[in-house]
Each structure stands twice: as structure tokens, then as C-alpha cells.
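Workshop exercise sheet. Pairs work together: one partner reads the sequence aloud, the other fills in the structure field after running the prediction. Swap roles for the next sheet.
Pair: D.N. / O.F.
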Amino acid sequence: MLNKTRAQSLQQLTVATKDGAIMTEPIALLQKLIQINSVNGNELAVAKLLQAELEAADIPTKLIPYTEDRVNLIAELNHGDRVLGFTGHEDVVSPGDESAWTYPPFSGKVVDNVMYGRGTDDMKSGLAAMVLALIALKQSGFTHPIRLIATVGEEYGAMGARLLTEQGYADDLAGLVVGEPTTKILKYAHAGTVNYEIDSEGVSVHSSRPEKGVNAIDGLTTFAALEHHAFDKAPADPDLGPFRHSITVINGGDQVNTIPAHAFLRGNLRPTPSANIELVVKMLEDLVAHVNATTNAKLTLKVLHRFLPVHSDKTGHLVTSANAAIASVTGKPAELAVAFGGTDASEFIKSTNHFDVIVYGPGDNHFSHQVNEHIDLNSYTTAIKIYQEIAKRFFE
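Structure field:
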């Protein structure tokens, strides 16, 4: 139950349409978003809810489908040549074992000023805060161009951001604010991502005569043993530090007394400007070739996704104006840092237009993808004010 002082502060954050009707209160909007199950799909419901909020405030929107139920949202506040972008994603990851949650993962349960649910932290709170900031700017008479970009599929594939980039929605951006949770830290760079799969083909026989077959798992275990040091010569980056890599999925066999004819693993690389995508993929290809040449393994590499690292000038206008905005709202500037998780910005920066990117959003990214994911609601409502102030200072 929210106390009286807290309820009053939330009332002050409500926004009105041009005819004076009160919009959805911030906590209620976030709760509605959390109650939409948008696990790797079904973003249409999220887009329509946000569209209704924005259209009620007389902010034009456009729904841009990737598939029938996976729909991006674009909202335009004003027009001009120098556009500031706000972006967040509509999808969430699976909650996993729902019985392990203290409160149902799609309930948006509020306890002691904390909301629980899948997406509270990553990142429906950031997305909702950007929407409400846009509406508040509209009501204040703000005249500069802001583009809200809400995407599908960021958690696996970033297909929404890719589609919007291809359609030109990054071509006139002068800066981009990504609303991922950052634990009060202002992030000016993040690593890229390469997701890959290695398929291993063997020959299936009865396990009593393994010498007559080829165990597909053996090739993968050889690869996995060598992978640990395969990237030792990848250079460290001055900002993003050492190159990071992991094997994250392995699967093979279906019967205990049968030599498996097929197995696969998946892994993840985190390229940086120094250890770039081309370099680390070449190292990966060389490792696969080495295992195939020195064993009886038949491994095939598939690169599933390639996302660029993002690096902005930490003394540039976007970073400095954003940090001045944060200081004006919170009383002190944020610590500057880098991130190792990727964002949709990796797709948006593929535009021929050059612009800086920052990542700053409500919540604590240590809670992302976790059981009992949650957000302190003070962080969320403060972000609404910060995004407004970032817009104002960016255009000063």
C-alpha cells in the first residue's frame, strides 16, 4: 500500500490531455504493461497500449509490423532536422519456473513501493518513463523534435530495430537515448554481440560398440575445451576492457545406450572496437577448422547474429547534456561507465548517419532476467523527470 506522501507525489506526475482529461497514472501504466505477456512475441498489445496513451495526448504515432503480432511503435513529437531519439523494447524474456516467483511474474504486484514482474526492470519501466516524458513535454509546449522508438525482438535478434533502421528511422537522429536499466550509471559505450551455433555430425551405433560409430558429442567437447583459450590473443579495449566469450547452450543425444549422431552447442562473443567482429569471428572459424582437421569431428559453424559495439564520445554534447540533466533532477551527476550487454543501438548505428548514443534507464540491471525481477518505483518516476530534462538540455 502506498503511503499518503507517495500517492501525492505520483498525482503530481500525472499528465493531462489537451482537453484536460487526466491520463493514466504512471504506476498504473507500468502495471498494465507488466500484465501483458510479451515473452519473445505478442508485442502488438504493448504497442497498442502505448499508442492509446500517446494519441490521447495528441502525439502522432505509427505502428510498423514485423509480423502480425510483433509490432514496432513510432511516435513523433514535433518535426525538425535534428531529432533526439528515445528508444526501448517491448519484449521480455521468459519468466522460467513461475512457481519460483514470490508473486506471479505478470501481475505487476506492488509491495512497499516496489513493483514485481517480468519486464519491470528490463525494460518496460524505461519504456513507460519515456512515453510519459514525451507526453509531459507535449503538455509543457516543448517545440523540439523527439522520436520515440519502441521495438520488437530486442531480447533475441533485434529484428525490430533492424527493420526500422532499414526504413530510415535513424537517418536524422542527432542523438539516441536507450532506456535500459543502468543502476543510476550513465553508459556511453557497450560491447557488441555475436551469437553462434556449432552443429556436430556423427554416426549413430549401439553404445556397446562405440568404435563402429562417431560420437557427435566428442567433437563439441573438444571444441569446448579449446574455446577457453582460443581468444587469448584478442586485444583488450581501452574502454570496454578484455574480450568476453562464453558457451551457453549444449545439447546432444536422446537415448542412454545409443551413440548420438547429432549434437550442437551455442555460444556468445562480445566484440569491442579493439576486438572487432571480423577479428573474433575469424578466431572462431579457425578454432572450428582446427578441431575438424585434428579429430574425426565434423563441425559446422553458423553465425546467428552480429551486433556492432557502440561507442560514443564521453565528452560530447549528448553525454554532457544528459549528465547535467541527471544532476539537475537528482542533485549530482551520474558515474560514467560502459556496459557489456547489448542494445538495439547496435542496429540503429548501422545508419549512414553518425550520432552518439547513451544508455540510461530506471532500475538495476542486476535484476534483469532474474526470478522476482522488480523495480523501485522511485527510480521509475524519477526517470520520467530525467528524460524530460535530457530533452530540454540537449536542445539548449
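Discussion prompt: The chain has a mean pLDDT of 93. What would you look at next?
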